[in-house]
Amino acid sequence: MEAVAEGLWGLADYHENKGEIGKAVKCLEAICQSHVSFLPIIEVKTRLRISTLLLKHTHNVNHAKSHLERSQLLLKAIPSCFELKCRTFSLLSQCYHLVGAIPPQKLILYKALDLTSSASQDVAVKLWSCNFNSQLANAFIIEGDYQSSISALQSGYVCATEISYPDLQMFFATAILHVHLMQWDDENSVLRSINQCDRVWESIDPNRRGQCLGLLFYNELLHIFYRLRICDYKNAAHHVDNLDAAMKADKQKMQEIQQLSSELDALNQSLSRPDLPSRERSALAGRQAKLQQRLRSLEDSSLTGKEFLEPSYFGNARQAWGDKLVLAPSPMDGEWLPKSAVYALVDLMVVILGRPKGLFKECMQRIQSGMQTIQDALLKLGITDGVREVDLQHSAIWMAGVYLMLLMQFLENKVAVELTRSGFVEAQEALVQMKNWFIRFPTILQACESMIEMLRGQYAHSVGCYSEAAFHYVEAAK
Fold first, then answer.
1. What are the start and end residues of each CATH 1.25.40 domain in the chain?
2. pLDDT at 310 over 50
3. Which of 194, 257, 320, 445 gives a 20 to 30 Å CA spacing to 465?
4. b/e code 164-184 from CB counts within 10 Å (16+ = b)
5. In whole angstroms, what is the distance from residue 395 CA to residue 382 CA?
6. Is residue 8 within 8 Å of 31, Cβ to Cβ?
7. Where in this chain does the entry annotate a coiled-coil region (predicted)?
């Protein structure tokens, strides 16, 4: 029966490589639904594979969850299989997160941490412990339990320190800073966390830092948020310049990779011709080798997450290679936000710092750039003109909320710029867009309602409608 399972696994690989995910899942489910029993480990591996496919390529989280829950039951009777158990715990935790079942998620993560604490404390075990502590911290954040979240992240930091992984230490240091910035109950704690991030970043080998693009963006953005919070715009500008330069360099690199890949595809097609003269074939083969070498050097210059098996924590796994800003090594998938959202944030930071200086032309260019990036991302999430909040899949709500909130921030800045330079028609159009988005997604954008009323008040005040402005300010205060 093992040969049958291997055959069906191979067939599933074939269909997945062709993008036929439904057929791949059917091949694998044939093993689970067979009247003849397979070995429990074969069934567990198959169910894990099905769950990974479903989470990566579909919104069918409940189907994936049922396979993982069955795998967990099967693994209870097997004393070994540490890696399989950890993968099952990790994926099941993510499923509970995606359906909003936080208490079961925490329970499964506590079981996972118990498993790692009782295992031999080698590097692989420590890495899994880091994975589970990271997910547990995220669950605590959703419940608003900041202190427990920081404790879980500090446990992860200790594990990373014990195995001497500076970039993993940096991941936990920045995550701790992120929680402190959200909580902000003690400015001294925030400052200590900032200093810790600086120390850990400096401890990473300079050559290695170039491969940690996700950490660079995450760390610099958190530093900017801190500087903006304390109104230190001068020092914030330095971090924005760093981010802008890194973003432009990465865009240029990804464009070169795309061009090289296209050229390589054309070369491969030419080399497949049977009637190609030997001299021409030799020249093309030489060119092919050079292209492949250049492509490998570009791909190896950053941590892209190409080798990661786990889908991301927020249901955002369906991304092409190169679209992930990975923060931590496998088995973690420490992506904070998709690359497109991070790029939009960089544009937004440039706008926020450029507006007070009167750099309106550059601000409007960045607003248009950021809004286009967000619109493209919303389309990929299935959010077209007719889609409303009630139409969204639960697993897409969090990521849709990220992009929609960013979109509202860009529109807010657009209104502010247009009112400053007396572009009343353009300001009114942006306000109408904000109101329409709010009507379609009232729960996700609930926090923007006051901001919209304030902007409407500012618009009314700018055009001399003072009683109407007062009305909107009162509404904003409510």
1. 1-80
2. no
3. 445
4. ebbbbbbbbbbbbbbbbbebe
5. 12
6. yes
7. 240-270
